[in-house]
Amino acid sequence: MEMYSCFSIKLFKAFRKARRHVALVRRRVFDRKNLALLAFLPTTTTTGAAAWIVTMSVSGGLTLARRAVEAVRRTPRWQKRLLVLTVGAGSLTYACQDNQVLQINDGTGKKRVVIVGTGWAGASFLRNIDTSLYDVHVVSPRNYFTFTPLLPSVTCGTVEARSIVEPIRNIVRKRGGAFRFWEAECYKIDPTNKKIHCKSDNGTNIDGNGDFVVDYDYLIVSVGARPNTFNTPGVVENCHFLKEVEDAQKIRKSVMKCFERASLPNLTEEERKKNLHFVIIGGGPTGVEFAAELHDFVNEDLAKLYPDVKKYVNISVIEAGDHILTMFDKRITQFAEDKFKRTGIDLKTNFKVVKVTDKAITMTNSATGEIAVPYGMAVWSTGIGTRPIIMDFMKQVGQANRRVLATDEWLRVHGCDDVYALGDCATITQRKVMGFHDLLKDSEGNAIKELKELDIEEFKKALARVDSQVKMLPATAQVASQEGAYLANCFNRMKYCEENPEGPLRIRGTGRHRFKPFRYRHLGQFAPLGGEQTAAQLPGDWIHVGHSTQWLWYSVYASKQFSWRTRMLVVSDWGRRFIYGRDSSSL
Amino acid sequence: MEMYSCFSIKLFKAFRKARRHVALVRRRVFDRKNLALLAFLPTTTTTGAAAWIVTMSVSGGLTLARRAVEAVRRTPRWQKRLLVLTVGAGSLTYACQDNQVLQINDGTGKKRVVIVGTGWAGASFLRNIDTSLYDVHVVSPRNYFTFTPLLPSVTCGTVEARSIVEPIRNIVRKRGGAFRFWEAECYKIDPTNKKIHCKSDNGTNIDGNGDFVVDYDYLIVSVGARPNTFNTPGVVENCHFLKEVEDAQKIRKSVMKCFERASLPNLTEEERKKNLHFVIIGGGPTGVEFAAELHDFVNEDLAKLYPDVKKYVNISVIEAGDHILTMFDKRITQFAEDKFKRTGIDLKTNFKVVKVTDKAITMTNSATGEIAVPYGMAVWSTGIGTRPIIMDFMKQVGQANRRVLATDEWLRVHGCDDVYALGDCATITQRKVMGFHDLLKDSEGNAIKELKELDIEEFKKALARVDSQVKMLPATAQVASQEGAYLANCFNRMKYCEENPEGPLRIRGTGRHRFKPFRYRHLGQFAPLGGEQTAAQLPGDWIHVGHSTQWLWYSVYASKQFSWRTRMLVVSDWGRRFIYGRDSSSL
To answer: From edge to edge, which strands make up the β-sheet containing A277-281?
Structure first.
């Protein structure tokens, strides 16, 4: 009996190890497929295909498990024992490998690359850097990577917080312990002495001082940004933000608290309305998606659980500009605004919030003047600002007058050596002088025509191309992720490209740049609008809004997950929501 | 295209509704099966059977889903449309039922029952009370029920926090909105005026005053207990407790923080050891289970992720008595102590903690005197104490000299009318006078023999039986749950039993008591010891320790879940752990 249970545990453990191997291989294959998939997207938009992809992703895992169980059932006993022996020996070998002392690349003469931050840019760099070439160190106040595009889903429990995070230590382990991670906050960059100063939570060591210093040869700054409050008084104290997983968890708890408070006896109608007034400040993609998610949560789940107070619920989106979702095509903006009006989300455009207290939000509008509205919960999502550490760093490198840290097209920070900045904390400035002939090359790099034959249309096209290159890149996961991968690729080919430079001609100095400059490849953008409808804007001016796009959204977001583990968790969360709805515990 | 996706969504929603119905029916059937299962347990101990039960529970759900999908695939198109129509019409009817205005039983002349607390006792009462007979109101600071026996699993991420909670509003909805729930804390009971005073979080209404008063005809006090610190200085400030879901979540985060802190550079060996010294104070079932879970977490998952610091990990269990798990059979205690010694958990018996600071725990022992040990994280789990609201209530009803609120065998609080107390906040005192002839009845109620023929063995047996009845009931989920069900049953039969009293003869007064007194039926107890081994002590002195008992534990705990939703979540969490291990994000 004891043996039998031992057998099952061994089998399970072996299965788990095997599963990891398979996952690793599949991940690699899938990532490649993924690109193909995205290229394929603009032409295939049928729901069927998207649903099929999701189903296949899910059923793949299930089938594997079922087959394993069935195979064990069918096998005669002596074969089972043989299997246990084989698998046992195999897993023992694997386990021994696991427990080997990790090779930390200290003192091997490798140059040290220090990465600050484990968001999209940092994690993407980490995934792609060849750790056999560098001594890689990572510092971040969070020991996990967050799949930020699903944060609005976490606020309402459509997806659980843990389903969208991947521990950095898992990546360390998958890479054979080839780099080091420290959970600490970098509070000062010292580019002169090539050091960064970090601090951990209190109580790290006996004297309670958690400070330490890390030397670097190359520094990758990918600390991201912080929410921009435009110094509006009361925002930090009274509003929620939506940048981190913890923010999303807090919002979720707060929504439930608002409903519970509004349900108490002895409240006036006014008070119930106040508690159930949810205000979103900022009509960007995050704010709009959160408003849509909240609206779904209220109508699909909470209306049934809080029937007495559902009539008091009011969701407002306050936007300083004329329209919401301004970075999208006009058709999408129009559709979103119409949909919000139809579903009862209160859209207040041209309103600027000037003050937030614990009781009311004060805003102004040229027509109405200043008005104050009581609210139950407010989420501030108006854009991003620069973190203090970056502001301090900018002063040191002579960028004190700029608003954002500037890098060149190779992501090198202007004004200091060996420091690279990517993701939301930096922006790329173009080379100032551009060869006129370069300008007149088409995207394949062929000179268009002789200069004298250029007509006005072609000149306009050329200018548009320049414009697209000079335009500031959006602060999105896509940009950060591509920058990370690009930079890691540069680092990996540092030696080769030193000898065989592939970049454009240097303007100052002679010869060519080592690497081609970073070029952003826009793969499209989604804006979920609630009610199982999503707006999609893909390259080639392909625009679609509807239920089919929602399924496209599901499949793209499932495929883009960091690991098979999180993919399984996210897909099973979606499934759980379909079957049981969202959880309403105020937890 | 649009239609096709509409179809899938409708189908999904219909499926979700149907699933809920099936779940409801299955739950009822399963609950009955469950009792049979537990009666059957002492004789069937094979792992196979237990594993089969788990597999069946899981595969039941999967098979259902698979069959549904296959059925849809195979059906011709016109039949599908017919199905959509039928299901659509059905679900429309159901949805209409859902949205009906809830019947709140106000002013119908029904007596009002107010339940304070939604733990095991309160939730069990709620599940069983006939809401057509009473106007039921529930007040609790948490809007969910927690499956507390799995709390130690939540501390290490074996099971997620949300998997073990069931929102009270879900129960309200399943019961057709037949009772009311308020998320607030009851801070004062006024038995003279039959009122309770409640307060909610701040900011409930415009003037920020969240107080309100609820009248009652019958009051059910099931507020549970609080951790008992024995007034040891520094415990509240520096130790974690393990009573609520939030406690478990905090412990989980704290464990990860300790590992991350210990991994930082610039720390001495001493400091790393300090950060990785996990201390559990109290050798009861909760403390021991947490120690075992933590040990598994460290060895199965964290050792691979933190290979540099795993050698510094130390888990200590401090117990004031001679042995841990004193409420279990000696064989289990012995096995647990041996196992802990073998696996390297440091067991400090006969040590009394006298002070806790943020740096060290001070304890005394008759042999060594006072010693102070530095620690990284401490969990205090030494037993339970009385909540302030109960102490205040005891003063009012003349029980100021007692340590715990006393009730009679019908769970009525001594010293006041129409107030019942159950669960951890109360204890049952026996009737003081007992008929000598009653004493000499065997368990079926037949008089054993004539008095003069009574031999010493039979007299001992009779005394043991008395002893078992007088002994204070343990503060466990089982007791609370049975008390809740018993009391609800009494309330449901109030009218009938008024006319047909079924209880024993009254000692003071004439006639019989209305109800039979509450009798606790002990169904057994588990003590998970880590490494997929569990100790079980079931009725009939059936004791077993090992891997097979772990599978028994899995199946019993899966079957005991509050709803099919949490059952699915818990089982899938276990599955996820088997495949991917526990999550190490410090979230």
So the answer is: A346-349, A314-319, A277-281, A377-380
State the pLDDT confidence band at B505, using cuts at 50, 70 and 90.
confident
Candidates B162, B308, B359; nearest CB to A587: B162
Instruction: Name the residue of chain B whose CA is nearest to A569's CA.
Output: B576
User: What mean pLDDT is predicted for residues A288-309?
Assistant: 95
The CA distance from A228 to A230, in Å, is 6
Judged by DSSP in three states, A579 sits in helix
| Helices A77-98, A2-40: crossing angle, 10 deg rounding | 70
Q: For residues A462, A465, A467 and A469, what is the CA-based torsion angle, rounded to 10 degrees?
A: -140
CB count, 10 Å around CB of B461? 14
Residue whose C-alpha is closest to residue B144's, from B166, B126, B115:
B166
Spatial distance between the Cα atoms of B361 and B354, rounded to a whole number of angstroms: 8
Tokens describing residue A523: 């793969």
How far apart are the C-alpha atoms of B428 and B520, rounded to whole Å?
11
Angle between helices A547-559 and A47-74 (to 10 degrees): 50
Partners of B218 in beta bridges: B113
Q: Which residues of A touch B47 (CB under 8 A)?
A: 1, 4-5, 8
Neighbours of B398 (CB within 10 A): 11
What are residue A135's phi and psi, to 5 degrees?
-95, 100
What is A107-142 written as a DSSP string?
Answer: SSSPEEEEEE--SHHHHHHHHHS-TTTEEEEEEESS
The Cα–Cα gap between A189 and A256 comes to: 41
- Least Cα separation, residue B548 to chain A (angstroms): 6
Contact A162 B583 (CB under 8 A): yes
Task: Please write the tens of the pLDDT for every residue from A136-155.
Answer: 999 999 999 999 999 999 99
The letter for the amino acid at A102 is L
Residue A412 per-residue DSSP state: B
Contacts of A184 in chain B (CB under 8 A): 264
In the structure, what pLDDT confidence band is assigned to residue A210 with cuts at 50, 70 and 90? confident
Q: Per-residue DSSP letters for B340-390?
A: HHHHT-EEEET-EEEEE-SSEEEEEETTTEEEEEE-SEEEE-S-EE--HHH
Question: If you measure CA to CA, which chain B residue comes closest to A214?
Answer: B265
Q: Does A21 lie at the interface with B, CB-CB under 8 angstroms?
A: no
One-letter amino acid at B324 equals: I
Are B379 and B279 a contacting pair, CB within 8 Å? yes
> Is the pLDDT confidence value at B357 over 80?
yes
Nearest-CA neighbor of B283 among B351, B356, B354?
Answer: B351
Contact B170 A51 (CB under 8 A): no
Q: Which structure tokens are listed for B520?
A: 């606790």
Chain A residues near residue B547 by CB distance under 8 angstroms = 2, 5-6, 9
CA atoms within 13 A on the CB side of A313: 25
* Domain ranges across chain A: 2-99, 107-141+184-225+386-430+473-521, 235-385+523-580, 432-470
Tally of CB atoms within 10 A around B345: 23
Q: State the complex-level ipTM.
A: 0.78
What pTM value is reported for the model? 0.79
Chain A residues with CB inside 8 Å of B203's CB?
261, 358
Residue type, B536: A
User: Looking at domain B107-141+184-225+386-430+473-521, which of 3.50.50.60, 1.50.10.20, 3.40.50.2300, 3.40.50.1240 is its CATH number?
Assistant: 3.50.50.60
Secondary-structure class of domain B235-385+523-580 per CATH: alpha beta
The answer to whether domain B107-141+184-225+386-430+473-521 and domain B235-385+523-580 are alike in fold is yes
Q: How far is B324 from chain A (nearest CA, A)?
A: 25
Q: Of B477, B462, B561, which Cα lies nearest the Cα of B524?
A: B477
CB B537 within 8 A of CB B524: yes
Phi first, then psi, for residue B294 (nearest 5°) are -65, -40
